[in-house]
Amino acid sequence: GKIWRYDCYDIRKFKPGEIDTFLDIGANVGSFSLQAKVLNPTAKVISLEPCKETFETLLINMKQWKNTGIECYNICLGDGTLMYFDKRRHDGMSKFLTTEETHKWPKKYGYTIESKTLKKIFDDHKINREKPYIIKMDCEGGERFMRQEEFLEESLDIIRGSVQTMMEVHVDPEFGGSKDQWNSFFDKLKNTHELRLARWEDKENSDKRYIYAPVSEMPYEKGKMQIELIDKKWIGPWPGKGK
């Protein structure tokens, strides 16, 4: 898939031993978690997937690889409350909503799942914030909880401490956040991290991978955008070696 072939989360540039922990939020069937472990065998890899059916497939995949040491948990990024499963045709596009959000969009929802804030995830899983860590988020709008006022500063502090954070950002005033809200969020990180937007270098060439280009702000009013925030200390000839 695109994770292995195109390195769409841009982690091949890191050498084995450089990263202590990878946190995979929205792991799906585990492709990114496995890629991170293969490229960085000594790293701690934590894999979070909220969809129960997909989580079962994730566990099966981990068993097939045997003894990876990847930690897998059936939870989602949220506000700490139980979240309601909003099933979509493709499991990878399913969402999890708060009780308040289910009242806003009434329908018959599925099961509930435990949610944790970003800080709670770091605390509960004892992620060492003094050592290099990378965060990947692809959680169909779950990233919106980091912008909530009560979680904003602690989430920003965690991202500021990351070597790299990759996110699929859902820009939608109704669900996910507006362009202005996200640009305000990223603006608070500009002193420590460079914002990059993913694009294809050449869609006609199947060997081309995702290219991350620096941007000053999110360019689009609505839609899904894959972004990367990289610590500026890791950019350049040393110590980042061109990252």
H/E series: HEHEHEEEEHEHEHEHEEE
Cα(first) to Cα(last) distance is 23 Å
Tally of strands: 12
Mean pLDDT: 91
Major pleated sheet? 8 strands, mixed
Structural class: alpha/beta
Question: Which terms summarize this structure?
Answer:
4-stranded mixed beta sheet; alpha/beta; Rossmann fold; 8-stranded mixed beta sheet; single chain; 12 strands
List the helices and strands and how they pair.
Blueprint: H1 2-6, E1 21-25, H2 31-39, E2 44-48, H3 52-65, E3 71-73, E4 76-77, E5 82-86, E6 95-97, H4 99-104, E7 112-116, H5 118-124, E8 133-137, H6 149-161, E9 164-171, H7 179-187, E10 193-200, E11 210-214, E12 223-231
Describe the structure.
The chain has about 240 residues and is of the alpha/beta class. It has a single domain, classed as Vaccinia Virus protein VP39 (Rossmann fold), CATH 3.40.50. About 25% of the residues lie in helices and about 25% in strands. The chain has 7 helices and 12 strands. Strands 3-2-1-8-9-12-10-11 form an 8-stranded mixed sheet, sandwiched between helices. A 4-stranded mixed sheet has the order 4-7-5-6. Helix 6 links the parallel strand 8 and strand 9. The chain is globular, with a radius of gyration of 17 Å. The model has no long low-confidence stretch (mean pLDDT about 90).
